[in-house]
């Protein structure tokens, strides 16, 4: 196991290096400058600005400088936020996104699993149909529509929850619900299909024959095997939720990273684009590794490091 | 196997621990601001902003919210009054102007920084030198000073050529602690307005040097001399900040408002929801799709801005170098409809490039009153000019590219204009390209377009800020327009700057030449901005240049 993880860790570093290099050159293909007033500046003034930030150097030199900085742990500075270090910016902005993403995936998965299992147990009853209905809604209606509707009715009209901002736990409820709709739908659908499949297998019949209650059958014997496909989709979904959602963060005025990333690209904030891409990639490869480890834990038939020699 | 019994639990613990590790320290954003409860009489308001404040270092600020906050917490030699005119702030009475009109000597009043230090003439010298110093990397410093303050252009040129320069050659000198001498490059009819612009504010040398790179990076590293002081601001990434009344302000008795809380809300609908939900008293500028639903609502305030938009026609394209083709394009789209139906936010059709309600001529009338409408929509005249132009070029059809913005509003406008052009000018095919701002800027600078929809917002209230755009060597010309006659007129106006009547008359003539003779650009509209403001908040003032709003005279009523 340890050897496997070390090997994966080395691959991870290589992956990140390749991503950093590709992103750097792709990013330099975007036209324009990071200076917001570039439209007003004369060529001489623009030249001085570029010299100050080393942007007059050939791209290859800039790349070398960036990689050297990266090895020293220096992610550079942001242009749009007047030289705030990118590391500080990322640390500040990732927190709300992580909190929201975690809450959404946590509650979303639990509710989704419960809905899915119940649907499978009560197949083709009104319970199954309503759970399917919820899943279809969650999957087909974009989360910003939920967000907007909730903000207006629950926040503005009823005044039950804060309309927006990020000042306490109650401020996270509506954005979490909006973000959780998709994981609920996905998990419920996968869970139902897998569960129906698993419940038809021999060992479940055996368990039933031995007199296990249907609750015990479903959650003790069935759930583990049915979880594997869910874990597969949950990995990437977790990353996409934790890296923030542009729209949800904008609607609820949350200082998150999703909005930040998109803005950085549109204003050519080079170091922020690089830093965010690297952070997201890092989260992604780590989650993939965790998912792979989890497979082994859930299903003993899956071995990570090959059999004993 | 005991292990397998707990493996599901282990799975959950593993997953949880990853999440929790990632979330550690994530709770420090969850505190602050419970003191913002407003009773009706409390002199406190809440304002929404669409963006964070990138910097509050006055020599580096370039954005509207930055200027708004700076204008509230700092003051320069002059300041904008309720009517937008520039009135003395730190200047004591009328300054002494030299005979050639290029040197002005100011006497300063006794004003204090919020740390107790007096505001001195040296503070101005320090700030201005810092603004022009290439090492500061200020964008607005050179932009506002070059060609206006003596010695500024020379410093920029020397820096580009990697030659030595001396910041003391900039035309600003402290004669003594309370006397400041400023030398202009030429006679500037608008110098008082320039002195009211945040780039020309003073900075406390001792404080700035003591803080070094941390200067103006948060509320603790900033001092102010204005009506308010910054009570809380964690820095450029902060999405909330607070201003409080500054008791050491020179005119503190005139300020009623005690506290302003700003919150960043980037989504347009969320701004409206926050306003309706009582989370804000004043919104940022509404997007045009939200304006119709507040039409006739007393809470929506519309203000005509001095920003004018136009279609630039690139002279590098042979067809567009033909004046008849340009005339045809400029007259071929219905701008009244564009403003009324497509924009639908109080914007008005522009038949000019110097905006309406922007500058007043010496006789007390608006600049527009004499010059009036120079290019008006007229489909018949457009078609006639079009056919004449095509005949001269020996063509029967023409294909042009059209570069526009990629926002919803920009796309709607551009689609309308393109449709009008193709309908009214037979044989014309226009290929619309909607691109992000940075790309549009890049292609404009490179002259890589046929038609380009863009605009200009002024930095000082003088027709020259628009008129000098079209000079042959202007970096903002961007369309290879070059007219000896036009260049001559602008030069003539500059030379006549000491004589206001002649100055304005010459600029008006230049506008007529550029539009009605040369059809240099095809003006489209002059923008209006709309905000929502709570009925109990009185005295918000919209300003014509630099900062867009002043909060100084706000009072909250029952």
From TrEMBL, chain A:
This is Peptide ABC transporter permease. Keywords: Cell membrane, Membrane, Transmembrane, Transmembrane helix, Transport. One of its GO terms (cellular component) is plasma membrane. It is a multi-pass membrane protein. Pfam families: BPD_transp_1 (PF00528), BPD_transp_1_N (PF19300). It is found in: Cell membrane. Residues 94-295 form the ABC transmembrane type-1 domain. Its main location: membrane. Belongs to the binding-protein-dependent transport system permease family. It comes from Peribacillus loiseleuriae. The chain crosses the membrane at residues 9-30, 98-121, 133-153, 173-191, 226-252, 272-298. GO terms for biological process: transmembrane transport. InterPro entries: BPD_transp_1_N, MetI-like, MetI-like_sf.
TrEMBL record, chain B:
Its main location: membrane. The keyword Signal applies. Keywords: Lipoprotein, Palmitate, Peptide transport, Protein transport, Signal, Transport. It comes from the Bacteria. It is found in: Cell membrane. Pfam families: SBP_bac_5 (PF00496). Coiled coil: none annotated. GO terms for cellular component: ATP-binding cassette (ABC) transporter complex; outer membrane-bounded periplasmic space. Residues 87-477 form the Solute-binding protein family domain. GO terms for molecular function: peptide transmembrane transporter activity. Residues 1-21 form the signal peptide. InterPro entries: Peptide/Ni-bd (IPR030678), SBP_5 (IPR039424), SBP_5_dom (IPR000914). GO terms for biological process: peptide transport. Belongs to the bacterial solute-binding protein 5 family. This is Peptide ABC transporter substrate-binding protein. It comes from Peribacillus loiseleuriae.
